[in-house]
Design brief:
It is built from 6 helices and 6 strands. It has 2 domains: about 5-140, endopeptidase domain like (from Nostoc punctiforme) (endopeptidase fold (from Nostoc punctiforme), Alpha-Beta Complex); about 145-219, PGBD-like superfamily/PGBD (Muramoyl-pentapeptide Carboxypeptidase, domain 1). β4 and β5 form a beta hairpin. The longest helix is centred in the last third of the chain and has 13 residues, at about 185-195. It is an alpha+beta fold and about 220 residues long. It has helices at about 5-10, 25-30, 45-55, 160-170, 185-195, 205-219, and strands at about 75, 85-90, 95-105, 110-115, 125-130, 135-140.
């Protein structure tokens, strides 16, 4: 299902004031592996986007902090409806943020309209100041994710490197932006994957790492 359709199906879901919790909001967290959240008082914008993405067969962060979405998918400069938009809160340098699903801009592109959770304590369509945007991310369906062909190593560039970066980020081995440039972050992320799966830790994408990635994607 399209992520916007998934999110729209939840419009109007809102927090319950007092000691009672809305079980639907708690479910957003529980069904995406963010198990420490058991009430609707904790900020839940990221858990909502996680839930919508999972229902739409898209990569998720499994994290409750909004800025975790800066490490998922591909960075885009010209967002389309259904892309993920991340905003800063309080200060651009703080850890705080808000994440939502992009819908469009107003007439002069000064405001961003998005559909998200925990927007005035509810699932709603809200507009935000474009000056607070940290980034836009495009998610790729998991079933369409392609495993890069070996051999790839530091210094390589191109589409196969982009495939590797997409897969690493999806598997939560953060390599930063998907830019097609096999740099230090990509090498470090690959080394962590290799170490976690008892492979030779050399930071080079070879046949064994390809087989490992294929197995992890099917798990």
């Amino acid at each position: 299902m399209n992520i916007l359709k998934t999110a729209a199906s939840q419009l109007g879901t809102k927090e319950i004031r007092g000691d009672e919790d809305n079980p639907q909001i708690v479910k957003y967290a529980q069904e995406t592996g963010i198990t420490f959240i058991d009430n609707d008082d904790i900020a839940w914008c990221s858990t909502f986007v996680n839930w919508c993405a999972k229902k739409s067969n898209l990569p998720i962060t499994k994290k409750a902090n909004a800025r975790s979405w800066l490490n998922i998918g591909t960075h885009v400069l010209h967002p389309e409806p259904g892309d993920i938009v991340i905003f800063w809160r309080d200060s651009i340098d703080s850890w705080k943020g808000h994440v939502s699903i992009f819908m469009g801009f107003n007439y002069n592109c000064s405001r961003v309209f998005c559909l998200g959770g925990n927007q005035s304590d509810t699932v709603s369509i809200t507009d935000y100041d474009i000056k607070k945007v940290l980034g836009y991310r495009r998610l790729e369906e998991i079933k369409k994710m392609r495993i890069p062909e070996p051999v790839l190593k530091k210094g390589n560039k191109g589409q196969e490197v982009m495939k590797l970066q997409l897969v690493l980020n999806h598997l939560h081995f953060n390599c930063g932006d998907v830019d097609g440039d096999f740099g230090q972050k990509t090498e470090n992320a690959l080394k962590i994957l290799q170490a976690n799966n008892l492979l030779t830790v050399n930071g080079i994408h070879e046949q064994k790492s390809k087989d490992c990635i294929e197995s992890l994607l099917q798990a």
